[in-house]
Design brief:
About 20% of the residues lie in helices and about 25% in strands. The protein is an alpha/beta fold. Strands 1, 2, 4, 6, 8, 10, 11, 13, 15, 17, 18 and 19 form a twelve-stranded parallel sheet that branches. Strand 18, helix 7 and strand 19 form a beta-alpha-beta unit. The longest helix is centred in the N-terminal third of the chain and has 14 residues. The radius of gyration is 24 Å and the shape is elongated.
C-alpha cells in the first residue's frame, strides 16, 4: 500500500468536510498527532480504523485503495463514487472496485471479527496479527510471511495459500474446507480441532504442526514433506502421493479408503490403528510397518 497516497486521500476527504485534524481525531478517539502522521504518509490506520474513517468521511472503503485512485484519475478526482460509476461505460458499471491489502507490513494489527474479507493480502509481512473469529474465506495469500498470528475460530475455507511461509501461527477450530496450500512452508502451527475437509497440500513442507482432533476427509497431500506430525481420529477418503514422511505417527486412528502412493513409508509409525482392506493393501504395498494396524473386517 502507498502510505503517501492514502495520507493525501485522508487529507482531501477531511478538507472537503471542512474539519480540522483535531476534530477528526476526536471523532475517531485518537490523537491529532496520529492523524497528522497519516496525512504525511508516515503511518497508516489499521483496517478497523479505515472502516471508521470511511464512515466519518462519507466515502467508500475502496476510496483508500490504489485501484480506486486509478479510476479517479480517469473520471475526475472530485467526482463521487456513484458519479464515477455512472460515467463509466455500461459494460464496466457492474465491476466492483477491489480492496487490495497486498504488499503491506502488518505488525500487531487486529483484524478479529472481520467478515467477507475476500480480497488479497499477497506479498505481505504479517507478524503478531489477530484474525480471531474472522470470515476470510476465499482469501488469496501469495508470497507472504505469516508469523505468530492467531486465526483461531476463523472461516478460512476455499482460501489459497501460495508460496508462503507460515510459522508458529494458531489455526485452532478453523474451517479450512477446500483450502489450498501450495509451494508453502508450514511449520510449528496449531491446527487443533480444525476441519480440513476437501483441503489440499501440495509441493509444500508440513512440519512440526499440532493437528489434534482435526477433521481429515477428502484431504490430499501431494509432493509434500510431512515431518514430526501426529495424526489421530479418522482419516477418510484421503490421498497421500509422493510424500516424504519423517517421524510421522498415526495413533489411535481409523484409516478408511485412504490412498498411499509413496516410494517409502518407513518414516511412518502406526500405533493402535485400524484400517479397511483397501487402505491396508496400499500400506502393505508401500512396505509400511503394519504391526500397529488392525484390519477392519466388517
Amino acid at each position: 500500500m502507498e502510505t503517501k497516497m492514502i495520507g493525501s486521500k485522508i487529507a482531501e476527504a477531511r478538507k472537503k468536510l471542512n474539519i480540522s485534524q483535531a476534530q477528526l481525531a476526536q471523532l475517531i478517539f485518537i490523537s491529532p498527532q496520529a492523524v497528522g502522521k497519516w496525512e504525511r504518509g508516515e503511518s497508516i490506520p489499521d483496517i478497523i480504523t479505515f472502516s471508521r474513517l470511511a464512515e466519518i468521511l462519507g466515502v467508500d472503503l475502496n476510496y483508500f485503495s490504489e485501484k480506486y485512485q486509478a479510476v479517479a484519475n480517469e473520471t475526475g478526482s472530485n467526482a463521487s463514487l456513484a458519479k464515477q460509476a455512472a460515467d463509466l461505460p455500461a459494460g464496466n458499471q457492474k465491476q466492483k472496485l477491489s480492496w487490495d491489502m497486498s504488499r503491506g507490513n502488518w505488525v500487531g494489527a487486529d483484524f478479529s471479527g472481520l467478515k467477507n474479507l475476500h480480497e488479497k493480502f499477497s506479498s505481505s509481512n504479517m507478524r503478531n496479527c489477530l484474525f480471531i473469529g474472522s470470515v476470510i474465506s476465499g482469501l488469496l495469500l501469495k508470497g507472504n510471511n505469516v508469523v505468530n498470528c492467531d486465526f483461531s475460530g476463523s472461516d478460512v475455507s476455499s482460501s489459497r495459500i501460495q508460496d508462503s511461509n507460515l510459522v508458529n501461527n494458531l489455526f485452532k477450530e478453523c474451517s479450512l474446507k477446500d483450502a489450498e496450500f501450495s509451494g508453502s512452508h508450514i511449520n510449528s502451527c496449531d491446527f487443533s480441532s480444525s476441519d480440513f475437509t476437501g483441503a489440499s497440500v501440495k509441493s509444500s513442507a508440513f512440519m512440526k504442526n499440532t493437528i489434534a482432533n482435526a477433521v481429515w476427509n477428502r484431504t490430499s497431500f501431494k509432493d509434500t514433506q510431512i515431518a514430526e506430525i501426529a495424526f489421530d481420529g479418522i482419516v477418510e477418503d484421503c490421498y497421500f502421493e509422493n510424500c516424504d514422511f519423517k517421524k510421522v505417527t498415526f495413533q489411535n486412528l481409523t484409516l478408511i479408503n485412504t490412498f498411499f502412493k509413496n516410494r517409502s513409508l518407513k518414516g511412518v509409525r502406526f500405533v493402535d490403528c485400524q484400517a479397511d482392506r483397501m487402505t491396508y493393501e496400499f500400506l502393505k504395498n508401500g512396505k509400511a510397518d503394519l504391526t500397529g494396524i488392525t484390519l477392519i473386517t466388517h
